[in-house]
Target: aldehyde dehydrogenase (NAD(+))
Amino acid sequence: DNFGIQEALQRLHVNKENLGTSTGVEWMETNEEYQTSYSPVNGLAIAKVQSTSEEAYEAVVEKAQEAFKFWRKKPAPFRGEIVRQIGNALRERKEDLGKLVSYEMGKSYQEGLGEVQEMIDICDFAIGLSRQLYGLTMHSERPGHRMYEQWHALGIVGVISAFNFPVAVWSWNTMLAWVCGDVCIWKPSEKAALSALACQHIAAKVFKDNGLPEGISSLVIGNYKVGEYLSHDKRIPLVSATGSTRMGKLVGEAVGSRLGRSLLELGGNNAIIITPNADLDIAIRGALFGAVGTAGQRCTSTRRLIVHDTVYEEVKSRLASAYKNLTIGNPLDENFHVGPLIDKDAVNSYLAAIDKVKAEGGKEVVAGGLMEGEGYESGCYVKPCIFEAENHFQIVQHETFAPILYLMKYSDLDEAIDMHNGVPQGLSSAIMTTNMREAELFLSVAGSDCGIANVNIGTSGAEIGGAFGGEKETGGGRESGSDAWKAYMRRQTNTINYTTELPLAQGIKFHI
Ligand code: UN1
Model:
């Protein structure tokens, strides 16, 4: 049984004719080598895609520039209407796309569906936003003058996305960018190019059905080199990049050196503080999903648990028994909780991290290791594991994209907050407590230093309505909800004089 994946691929038009580089419905032959997409579920090749050559990239940017001149003049609510149609097309393809995401990158089918739901949600958000791209009006200090600000479309937005959320993160960026009047060039992770191809088909059909030109939605395929085309290109005013801190620094530096804008959503090292006043049923469940969901491959995954010494032993033993009940296997089969890691490189990083934490003095609570035997032929399935560790361990300071959880003990909440903040990353965080003072301290300026701080829910699974992103090495960018749209527009301050005088600001006198 293949869980209907072949049929889903057909319906999503993921087949041999999809070459890779696209400006919409048009696909470009590039003479570059093909790369094969393998599924970590069973190790089989799914399909081949062709990398984008420098010439093809040039053609894409030229089309995008042309399309921008057209698209920016369309009223924003019209652009919202196009996004509404894309949202509806995603509703129709939710199961198929969820399945492809699950098969291509290994998250559970339920999480694949959840990811497509995030796309649908951001479409709805963007539609409303298309009538709310508000600027402020100001009172001028000069008589007979009016001041206001307006937000204009920025231009071409480059979107570099990661394998772990191969479709949702693209949609957070593009749906907002499109209603803002921008056009987008997407470079998906080369590890999840097929999910991107499927999305490109869905969006391109809507653009075509509405008689809109090529170049509003473009796709380029390849490794970091193709990402470099985007980050070095002066014609791209904004590059939004999701991925490792290492990658983000390269993108940020390249874009910064040409004084472009970058929006970075990079690594996390997310912790949950469990206080003596926690509802432990909720705390255990929140920590469990946070640590093992998506096999620990979310940037919001829970990597550290900082537990008060009075509840430490109970948390440890309850977590250990919960881990015993986890089932590991084919993510398309809903009987399994945990799917594979993305590839063998990820498995090697996971194994190396386990060696490292042991070498640094970590104590095993739940053992890790590679799964072997029937159903695990891809070599990508690993056991979620737990170690008692210390916050200053090198490996604890580092984001390992795998289901490894570090347990730590504290006795005083200020000390716990110091430990919590004592890592280079600053994405997501949580406190488990029913005590108002503890919760408010954690959310205060002296509390969590992360972009996301939760009470009585885990670190992962943010809703699209809030701004998503984090501080420090997470890169400082904010995507998705709230006023994250402002990153995709340029602000213009306008002063209009409707008198016959010409008074100068600051009362300066200048007469001839
Ligand atoms: C990511 O891992 O890059 O909050 C994004 C979450 C999801 C998004 C994660 N909504 O876990």
Notes: The first strand starts at residue 21 and ends at 22. The chain has a mean pLDDT of 96.
